[in-house]
Amino acid sequence: MQFTIQSIATVHNNRQMIQDDRWGEIISTIELADHIHEASLKGIEDFSHLEIIFYFDKVTDDQIQYKARHPRNNQDYPEVGIFAQRGKNRPNKLGSTTVALLEVKPRALIVQGLDAIDGTPILDIKPVMKEFLPKKDVKQPAWSVDLMKAYWG
Amino acid sequence: MQFTIQSIATVHNNRQMIQDDRWGEIISTIELADHIHEASLKGIEDFSHLEIIFYFDKVTDDQIQYKARHPRNNQDYPEVGIFAQRGKNRPNKLGSTTVALLEVKPRALIVQGLDAIDGTPILDIKPVMKEFLPKKDVKQPAWSVDLMKAYWG
């Protein structure tokens, strides 16, 4: 089944190049697309965090991984399936990240910690509610802890 | 900007009708689509939780809300923008939920707490890593706490 989706906003920040690490301090402006009404943001200032779903538009179709690979092509990490990692070269090219909401403007949001480069199309914005966080302890393999060491900065 | 996306898996569970509440005990099978290699799940058993991005395919285009509305049409809740709530009638019809991973089969995952009905197309599966959870306390308005009271059951 195929579906058509459309960007509802665009990222503006000072990161022009794809980069693996140090995303924590990046401040981004998420600017609504023309066809989205500013009322869509009403009341969003009452949330501290947002979940941003975006589209890795710089990934070409031939880069998409459908099987398994070493995360970051690092042979020290085990070979794991594309759905057992969060890398960008994935089917449907969807990214999803929780950010801190710093400021709300009439047609834009200022957020911290969005790991998307300047110009990235945004597909959805959802408020983070505690009730949607994991209900029990999160377990994850050692390679993923190592990979994330410098991710936020 | 428009993009085409394709389901990579399908939900199977015993919930046939759209329902607001009591999703916590629902056990779902996520079955890979034919064009997705089973190696895409390699190593996923080392994660306790997954983030599932899915498509609200039962929502018709005329149901999509681009402005603001009372969540669940409940007048006791404030009118808030569609991006300040998680309701399904949203631009791009994307859902995103963290589930507990119970079991891995060669071409399927058994998960608990997926709030999607039987037959829902799945667009992405991402492992939950602690480093992607909110870094500070989550703040949210009182209406959202009230709305979530019976959501998981």
Automatic annotation (TrEMBL), chains A, B:
CDD domains assigned to the protein according to its UniProt record, in alphabetical order: UPF0066
Domain of life: Bacteria
Start and end residues of each TsaA-like domain: 5-137
Keywords: S-adenosyl-L-methionine
Gene3D superfamilies the record matches: YaeB-like
Short name of any one Pfam family annotated for the protein: TrmO_N
Signal peptide: none
UniProt protein name: Transcriptional regulator
